[in-house]
């Protein structure tokens, strides 16, 4: 699943293509909004909110979308061949005289009044890449359930918005703790670093086509997707195991030496798992 930096990039592409332009084509291919016609309206802006996209349109309307695991927005010059997938996977088309944005495999697509946006995103915690970022509130949210595993607390978008499975694993590595550590047991000095470090990871990657957390050439990530490969710090083989609340398990990577603490038995997984 795209994480906050990837969604930020998608919002910028859509904003650059659509904002300030009148829609000449509008096609929402979901039953509830199939008859909605946005042609003739100007796109005002496209704003990311955590992992959500808010396309605001003249007349007090917002098209809310969420990419989840497989969704994507592609932007094409008019006359350019669309290549984001077969036609039956298209859920939305927004076109102007110069560009067309096509939404593929969007599991969440709804048209709502801009004044009602909180109904879609009001539950989210402080956005790591947003103007509402509040590090103290974000940390308090993560620590409010001291028995909850840190990795699960970081993924909970109600605590802070934008972290997915990749950044969860990488952030825990940089903090030197396992994702299974109860949040309340996170040492105070490391807890104090958590908000700024999380924000830095997303900020430095929001302009990059390839996500990098290490600063090392040829080695993009410390642990995620590196099962059984040597740790970049201590050379111990990286481990992987599933972590989840029972409703969904996510592949989680860690170094047993650099990240001492509670952890399950590793699973036999060698390829990158789905991100969240």
TrEMBL record:
Segments forming domain FPG-type: 222-260
Keywords annotated in UniProt: DNA damage, DNA repair, DNA-binding, Glycosidase, Hydrolase, Lyase, Metal-binding, Multifunctional enzyme, Zinc, Zinc-finger
SUPFAM superfamilies attached to this UniProt entry: Glucocorticoid receptor-like (DNA-binding domain), N-terminal domain of MutM-like DNA repair proteins, S13-like H2TH domain
EC number: 4.2.99.18
Recorded coiled-coil stretches: none
UniProt entry tagged with the keyword DNA-binding: yes
Residues covered by the Formamidopyrimidine-DNA glycosylase catalytic domain: 2-79
Domain of life: Bacteria
One protein family per Pfam: Fapy_DNA_glyco
The protein's enzyme class: lyase
Family designation: Belongs to the FPG family.
Listed name of the protein: DNA-(apurinic or apyrimidinic site) lyase
Biological classification of the source: Bacteria, Bacillati, Actinomycetota, Actinomycetes, Kitasatosporales
């Amino acid at each position: 699943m795209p994480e906050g930096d990837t969604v930020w990039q998608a919002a910028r592409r859509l904003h650059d293509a659509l904002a300030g332009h009148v829609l000449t084509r509008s096609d929402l291919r979901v039953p509830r909004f199939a008859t909605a016609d946005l042609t003739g309206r100007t796109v005002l802006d496209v704003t990311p909110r955590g992992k959500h996209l808010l396309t605001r349109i003249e007349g007090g309307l917002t098209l809310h979308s969420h990419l989840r695991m497989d969704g994507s927005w592609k932007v094409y010059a008019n006359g350019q061949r669309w290549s984001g997938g077969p036609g039956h996977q298209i859920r939305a088309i927004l076109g102007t005289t110069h560009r067309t944005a096509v939404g593929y495999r969007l599991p969440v697509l709804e048209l709502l009044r801009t004044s009602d946006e909180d109904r879609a995103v009001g539950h989210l915690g402080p956005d790591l890449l947003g103007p509402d970022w509040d590090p103290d509130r974000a940390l308090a949210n993560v620590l409010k359930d001291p028995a909850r595993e840190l990795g699960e607390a970081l993924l909970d978008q109600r605590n802070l918005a934008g972290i997915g499975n990749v950044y969860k694993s990488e952030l825990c590595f940089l903090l030197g703790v396992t994702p299974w550590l109860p949040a309340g047991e996170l040492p105070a000095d490391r807890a104090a670093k958590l908000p700024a470090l999380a924000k830095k990871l997303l900020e430095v990657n929001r302009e990059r086509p390839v996500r990098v957390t290490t600063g090392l050439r040829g080695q993009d990530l410390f642990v995620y997707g590196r099962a059984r490969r040597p740790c970049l710090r201590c050379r111990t083989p990286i481990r992987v195991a599933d972590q989840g609340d029972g409703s969904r398990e996510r592949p989680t990577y860690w170094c047993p030496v650099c990240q001492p603490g509670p952890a399950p038995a590793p699973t036999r997984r060698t390829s990158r798992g789905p991100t969240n």
